[in-house]
## 1
Amino acid sequence: MARRQWIADQIRADRARAGYIGRPLLKPLVVSLLRHDGFLSQFQGSLLPGRYRSIGAREIAAAWRLLTGFYDKREADEKGREADNDFMKLGFSSVLYGHPQLIPIARDLGGGHIVLDHRTEVDRGRVHEAEAVEGVMRVSHEKWASLPALMEAIATSLEIFRPLNGNMPVVDEEQRLYWDYIPLRNDRAPHRS
């Protein structure tokens, strides 16, 4: 019996070291990881517009462990439904930052993440931005409605060579994909004759 317990403990330790999240992932994320895992996390360019870089399964698990360390379950329980209602109305919540059912799928160099919502509420399957200062931000653009919608918007932008939310796809001399930010006309310096 002691040997059986030792083996079970070793399996749990191996899962923890390998980055085991301990909950089923949504099908679009699983499909994406089956297609791209191991490639996108090493990719020198950027498939995602803006400052985000896709991450592989091991990085997802490591980022999830890091982010869940910031989640304050007691505060979330105290605020309860109020925090969820504020998130839906205001579009952001510091209480949800690090929630165990918000699975990181991309990161930026500044520590921000794109997370896929695995909660059972209205936003299940929706993509959000998560940053330490702002918390979790619910972006209203339809491309954030789901991971497939985000990938479809990216694919369309690449196919028709059009900007996606102010980011233009560019391929450099080494055939790497990047996204250049295109400022709005109002952001440009005035033209002087």
## 2
Amino acid sequence: MWDSVPDVKREESGPDPVDTRLGVRLAELRAERGWSLGELAERSGVSKSTLSRAERAEISPTASLLNRLCGVYGRTMSQLLSEVEAEAEPAPLVRSAEQPVWEDRASGFVRRSVSPPHPGLRGELVEGRLAAGADLAYDRPPVPGLEQHIWVLEGALDVTAQDVEHHLDTGDCLRLRVWGPTRFRCAGPDAVRYVLAVVLP
């Protein structure tokens, strides 16, 4: 079973409210399909214990874990996170202060959902930030053939896709379709900030 990303232990103050809502939504998605934890473990390659702890918000899920589950549930990460923050009718405008921010504390990755959330969205904008030295790997895209445009706003970023490494400096933009593993690595001595435009096939 895939379980290579270490669990992030909780502080004594208890689970993060976003992680709690996320755990509830993950449990709902599994229940909607009538899957046991064992069935989901087989489909995702994630251990039953990690899945159970994520659903109970005993761990803060990593970006890699969420990416795996998004692939099983046929969603992008923005779609999943928008369901956690869902309103009755999605607003067409989201002010900067209201854009959901999610942090993968294990990898030093911070993700801001810039686009107004909508369950039927095909295109979306995400702001990503990686701390100096951070290295983020995904073993598969949430949706095969996903189109991505990566535009570096500050710093330097190394992106590896289909065994080809691309070095991006400030202002550079890379376009690709994602079919297999990808890796994002902060290449400079300082943090990197970039825009990720995602378009569903």
## 3
Amino acid sequence: MIRTKREFLIQLNELLPKQVDKAEILAEYENLIFEIENETMVASEGELIELVMKQIGTPEQLANNWKNKPIYHPNRAMIGFFLVNLIIFLVGSLLTVSYHTLEIAWIQQTWNVLIGVPIVLLLIYSIFFWLLGFEVGKEFGHRGRVMAPRIFLLTIIPNIILMIGTIFHLYPFEWFQPLLNGSFIVDCVLFTLLLFPINCWIGYRIGKRLSV
């Protein structure tokens, strides 16, 4: 019978497969136990461990979950999210250029919809960066606390370049004129500033919970 946090972590350490990073996994579960303890304010350590095993599982169950779990690398995650955002960025750029240079009905219709309801653009990026935080939390757990800001900053580089270039007329300004009114520019700046502390971070917290 496990009655203390130390016994719980020692047993988990013995059962975890050799190919995983045991130190990081144990630190992650130790932090989770600490969070559960703070949230519930149980009377004794024995009650805490019983509650922990009900919520997240026994050491045997947790170790079994890690046996077949693929190993993810931070650099691959950073490159992956960057490339996905870059593809979205390039598709948007291609749509803009095509609208102003080609007369294709579906391109014209798609552009008019996006311009008519610019909130759709913000909604797409809201969902994307929520998913970014969620995946980082789900795959990297407690380590994601440090990784999430780095991946976010790398991923959003194309958007910042486009925003700066458009405002300073480095690109054909008139192409974006329907969007570049005062209120939309303010909305974009505020939206960009809030993407990480709200969308990305909430996604991370939810993903972190599911990672264990």
